[in-house]
Amino acid sequence: MRIGEVAERTGLSLRTIRHYEEVGLVAPSARTKGGFRLYTAADVERLMVIRRMKPLDFSLEEMRDLLAITDRLSAAEPLEAAEHERLRERLDAYRKVADARCETLRARLLAAEDFAATLRRKLDSRD
After folding, report:
1. Which stretches make up the HTH merR-type domain (predicted)?
2. Which domain holds residue 93?
3. Are residues 121 and 94 in the same domain?
4. DSSP label of 115
């Protein structure tokens, strides 16, 4: 797929996809003879993972580290037991951070919904 199709599928802008390439989060799997970026379904899935991390305020360094962990865990070559366990522990630490940040977002959303309901009640009471 070319970058335009990837942008449509992921909901990311061309500029954002290029930025993620520049900072080393994702790379196109190939290029055409004319130099156009070509992406695979796996590349698109990687971009979707990055997109899901963004609302949780993961830094670029955290994203890079998390992607490196998942890449290593899913690599074809086998891992030593100690390395596998260490990577799983790091992955679990990121999961805990993600869970805590989701909880914070839920609380903020609840407060925002409560505020919107307050405004609706004020409007309804004036009619």
Report:
1. 1-69
2. 57-127
3. yes
4. H
Kindly report whether the global pTM for this prediction surpasses the value 0.90. Answer: no
Helix axes 60-73, 81-126, angle to 10 degrees: 130
Cβ pair 14, 3 in contact under 8 A: yes
Judge if 75 and 121 occupy the same domain: yes
Q: Kindly list the distances between the CA atom of residue 112 and the CA atoms of 67, 105, 118, in Å, as whole numbers in the listed order.
A: 32, 10, 10
If DSSP codes are grouped into helix, strand and coil, which group holds residue 85? Answer: helix
Does the structure show a pLDDT above 80 at 127?
no
Instruction: Please name the amino acid found at residue 114.
Output: D
Domain boundary among 9, 25, 51: 51
What is d(CA 64, CA 67) in angstroms, rounded to the nearest whole number? Answer: 5
pLDDT tens digit string along 20-30?
A: 999 999 999 99
